[in-house]
């Protein structure tokens, strides 16, 4: 067969398979990349901007069926409801006297309290009192509402696995028929049962995929960080602790990992890749992160994102210890066998860790 005839045959064959929604592996094999190439990009939302939006939203946006929550869209994801390919972060504001209507959804959610004490999240009949620095869980498909009975506004960072849920076509949502779900459990009852480290009640025989502890207090988190401050810690994360399921020791939620890390004054951590994405909130201190060669200076209240497999390192450049809270998709990556890490070596190469 001569060349013109060969091209004619190939063109006819490709038209036939394309017309029937079929493509040859030889046409798409370039998508099998040597390492992840995420569309999400490193990005930072500065505290000054977020504070301005919090102030303005208080008068510009009423709370009704929807919350006053400002979603952080990753610039690389072309308008998708996503901060990374699997996670979304938002900043939510609740003013004195307001109630955010009860609903439930299949994405799991966390709340990390950025400003204010005394508001609450009611989760499946338990009123969880929120204080600055606390981590509050809202497991998937549990009725929840928020209320602010104080005289000041309360602000928190939401974290949800919305993009992952959408990608799996598992999105479910429902409004409760009343503004609030009935309270039928003691206030902070889960903390009374499970908020004692590795000590759990023996009579609670059943365990679920998500942690039964709905609030992890900042007081205890800070105490744990400082108790380990003089340990060597991780060369890549510093003194890093995971919020865990008190019965199983696994992640607090099956789809989202939650961590807090202390980077000591003057400390510069080593660079690494991680197959999995993270969103960071700066609780305390100042520093810089180099993500894919770009420097991001951060301080209290900033939120920044590290996409999957982005080479990154953190350093403390301030006059005190820095503390970062973060959410990640590592539980899913580990469960599916996709998780891996690689460190930058002295000779410029990479080594699995």
User: Segments where pLDDT lies below 50 for 5+ residues?
Assistant: none
Total E-strand runs: 23
Average predicted local confidence, pLDDT: 95
Number of helices: 7
Strand order of the largest sheet: 1-19-16-21-14-13
Distance, first to last CA? 53 Å
How much of the residues is beta strand, in percent? 25-35%
User: Fraction of residues in helices?
Assistant: 10-25%
Shape: globular
Notes on the protein architecture:
The structure is a single chain. This protein has a six-stranded antiparallel sheet. The longest helix has 17 residues, at 3-19. The protein contains seven helices and 23 strands. A hairpin with a 2-residue loop joins strand 17 (287-291) and strand 18. The mean pLDDT is 95. It has 353 residues and is α+β, with helices and mostly antiparallel strands. Helix content is 18%, strand content 31%.
Keywords:
six-stranded antiparallel β-sheet; alpha+beta; 23 strands; single chain; 353 residues; globular
In short:
This protein has seven helices and 23 strands.
Give the helix/strand layout.
Layout lengths: L2 H17 L5 H4 L14 E3 L1 H14 L8 E4 L15 E7 L4 E7 L3 E7 L4 E4 L2 E4 L5 E4 L5 E4 L6 E7 L1 H6 L5 E3 L13 H6 L20 E2 L1 H10 L11 E4 L14 E7 L8 E3 L3 E7 L2 E5 L2 E5 L4 E4 L5 E5 L5 E7 L1 H6 L5 E4 L5 E3 L1
Antiparallel strand pairs: 1-19, 2-3, 3-10, 4-9, 4-11, 5-8, 5-10, 6-7, 6-9, 8-12, 13-14, 14-21, 15-22, 16-19, 16-21, 17-18, 17-20, 22-23
């Amino acid at each position: 067969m001569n060349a013109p005839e060969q091209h004619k045959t190939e063109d006819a064959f490709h038209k036939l398979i394309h017309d029937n929604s079929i493509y040859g592996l030889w046409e798409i094999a370039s998508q099998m990349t040597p390492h992840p190439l995420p569309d999400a990009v490193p990005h930072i939302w500065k505290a000054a901007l977020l504070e301005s939006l919090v102030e303005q939203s208080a008068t510009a946006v009423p709370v009704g069926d929807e919350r006053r929550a400002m979603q952080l869209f990753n610039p690389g994801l072309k308008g998708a409801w996503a901060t990374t390919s699997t996670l979304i972060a938002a900043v939510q504001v609740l003013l004195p006297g307001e109630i955010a209507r009860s609903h439930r959804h299949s994405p799991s959610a966390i709340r990390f309290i950025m400003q204010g004490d005394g508001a609450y999240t009611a989760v499946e009949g338990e009123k969880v009192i929120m204080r600055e620095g606390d981590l509050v869980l809202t497991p998937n498909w549990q009725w929840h509402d928020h209320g602010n009975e104080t005289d000041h506004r309360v602000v928190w960072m939401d974290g949800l696995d919305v993009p992952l849920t959408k990608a799996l076509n598992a999105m479910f949502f429902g409004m409760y028929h009343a503004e609030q779900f009935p309270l039928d459990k003691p206030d902070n009852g889960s903390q009374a049962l499970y908020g004692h480290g590795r000590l759990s009640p023996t009579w609670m025989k059943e365990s679920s995929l998500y942690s039964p502890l709905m609030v992890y207090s900042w007081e205890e988190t800070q105490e744990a960080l400082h108790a380990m401050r003089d340990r060597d810690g991780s060369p890549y994360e510093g003194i890093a602790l995971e919020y865990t399921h008190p019965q199983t020791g696994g992640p607090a939620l099956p789809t989202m990992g939650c961590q807090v890390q202390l980077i000591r004054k003057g400390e510069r951590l080593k660079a690494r890749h991680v197959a999995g994405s993270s969103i960071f909130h700066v609780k305390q201190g100042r520093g810089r992160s180099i993500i894919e060669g770009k420097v991001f200076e951060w301080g209290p209240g900033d939120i920044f994102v590290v996409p999957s497999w982005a080479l990154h390192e953190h350093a403390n450049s301030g006059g005190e210890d820095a503390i970062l809270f973060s959410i990640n998709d590592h539980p899913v990556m580990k469960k599916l066998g996709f998780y891996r890490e690689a460190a930058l070596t002295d000779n410029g190469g990479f080594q699995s860790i």
